[in-house]
Structure formats: structure tokens, C-alpha cells
Amino acid sequence: MEIKKLISLKSKNIFQQTLHRAAYKLKLDKQEGKLITNDELDTLWDLLNETAGFTYKSDQENVADDKLINFKEFELVKERLNNPKKFNSYFKPSIFVRFPGDESCRISILQFYNYVLRKVSLDQAWVDLAKYDLDCDGCLNEDDLNKYIGDLMAFMNLPNITISFKKFYQCTAVRKFMFFLDSMKLGKIPIINIILSPILTELFELRESEPLEGFEKRNWFSAYSSQRVYGQFLNLDTDQNGMLSREEIAEYNNGTITGIFFDRLFEECQTYKNEITSILEMAVIKKMVTMGYEEMNADDITV
Ligand SMILES: [Ca+2]
Ligand SMILES: [Ca+2]
């Protein structure tokens, strides 16, 4: 009787989970259908340019001219869009007044368009990440993020990444998100925190077909940065067990690390059997050595 009851409860739970997942997927599909496409964004930009009745001529050499639009023209742009309903949330008076206006209450079309671009990009990121939220709790755990980054890597600018290094890269990228965004060590991060984080923006820079000059050295996720830190990690890992002991780390920076520094370091990093386990932690060491551990906080740690 008891077993039957347990089986019945289990079946009920499975049914509820399946139903919950199906409802979540439906919601995601609906959200995805509402996303503004690149063609629609191009049309918006063209219409803003055509409708704007005033051009601000800059008298500074490095500042480009900008077109300004009043509220009447703003509403006209919406009417001329092919699918105005999709843009409803952008063409509200409350959005218009958010932007600084000139003496005739006209706003910059460039500022407005950049706002739309940013919001569309966040909506797209939310939908993309939510697809990996298998238990539909609005958060991603390490496994979810691992799958997300693994899939994203196919579209990232990562030249010369070998198949064997790919696994380490993926793991390190995930650890970076967990290290900074899961400070309470809950093992998961709310999706909203991920999409609003500069870490995701940094990761997305690698999706650009033409990233800004010098991104390899500046961007933590670039192939150059990750391979450099990984190389340092391997050099220090003299017993090749994939972890760094206190003795091995002591060799870093020509052996100048102090005992107090070690204590602080091992407090800050996730360890296994009191050994540092990943190249992210290696990056933490590097930053702590550069800055002095007293001054370091989570926001400072980038390679
Ligand atoms: Ca989840
Ligand atoms: Ca070792």
C-alpha cells in the first residue's frame, strides 16, 4: 500500500514537472516569436532617419552630426513600421521622456536606436539562456552554463583552440560566471543576473565578426588570454595532478608570495583538498599579486 502510494506520488511529480516544462517552453516560444529581427531593426533605423525633421550639426571635429526627432515624429515612425505591435513597448511616452531633449523637446534618434538595440539584445540573451534552464526555476547551474557555453563556442571568435583545450576553456568560462555571480555558493545563478552582468557582455564580444582591435589581450575570454593563463597553470603544476598546492603556488612570481597572502587566497578560491583547482583561480592569484590582496574585491579580478 505504502509502495503504491509512493509510486503514485512519484508519477504525480513527474507529471507536474513535465507540465511545468511544457508551459515554460510555450512561454519561451512565445517570447522568441516576439523578438525583433535584424531586418526589423534595419527598417526602424531607416524610418527614424527619414522621419527626423532636424539635424544637429556638431561644431566639433570628432563628434558626428545627429538627427533629432520630436514626439509627433516619434509616433509617426511607429505607425510606419510593418509590425508596430512588436515595438509597442519602445514607443511609449514614458520611453520618449527618458532621453534628454533639446529646447524643442526633440531627442536623438541615435540614442533611442541604441536603447532599442541594447534591449533587443538582452531579450535575445534571456531567451537563449532560458532554453538551458531545464528545471524552469529561472536560474542556471554549472551544468546548464557548461552546455550553453559549449554550444556558443561554435559561434565565437576562438582561433587556434584545440579540441583538448576546448574542454578546459569551457570549464574555466563557466567557473568565471560562478565565481563572480554565485557569491553565496548556491550552485546556481538567476538568469537575469547573468544577462545584466558585464561578464556576459565580455563573452559576447567574441561573437563579433570584427571585434575591436586589441580585444585578445583585453578580453578575459579570448583564446590568447585563456591559453596564457592555462600555460602558467601548467608550468606551476609540477606534479601534473591538475591542481596547485601551496608549495607549487609558492613558485609563482619568483616565490614572493607571503603566508598571509596564501591564507587570503585559499579563503577566496574554491579548493579541492586544499589545492587550487582551476585556471580561474590562477587568474585570481595573478590579480592578487598585481594589486595586493588587501585591495582586491570580486570586481577587480580580470586577467
Ligand atoms: Ca534551473
Ligand atoms: Ca599540482
Automatic annotation (TrEMBL):
Compartments where found: Cytoplasm
Q: Which UniProt keywords apply?
A: Calcium, Cytoplasm
Q: Which GO terms describe its cellular component?
A: cytoplasm; spindle
One GO biological process from the UniProt record?
regulation of dephosphorylation
Q: Which residues form a coiled coil?
A: none
InterPro entries referenced in this protein's UniProt entry, alphabetically: EF-hand-dom_pair (IPR011992), EF_Hand_1_Ca_BS (IPR018247), PPP2R3C (IPR039865)
What protein name applies here? Serine/threonine-protein phosphatase 2A regulatory subunit B'' subunit gamma
This protein's species is Clydaea vesicula
Which lineage ranks, top first, belong to the organism behind this chain? Eukaryota, Fungi, Fungi incertae sedis, Chytridiomycota, Chytridiomycota incertae sedis
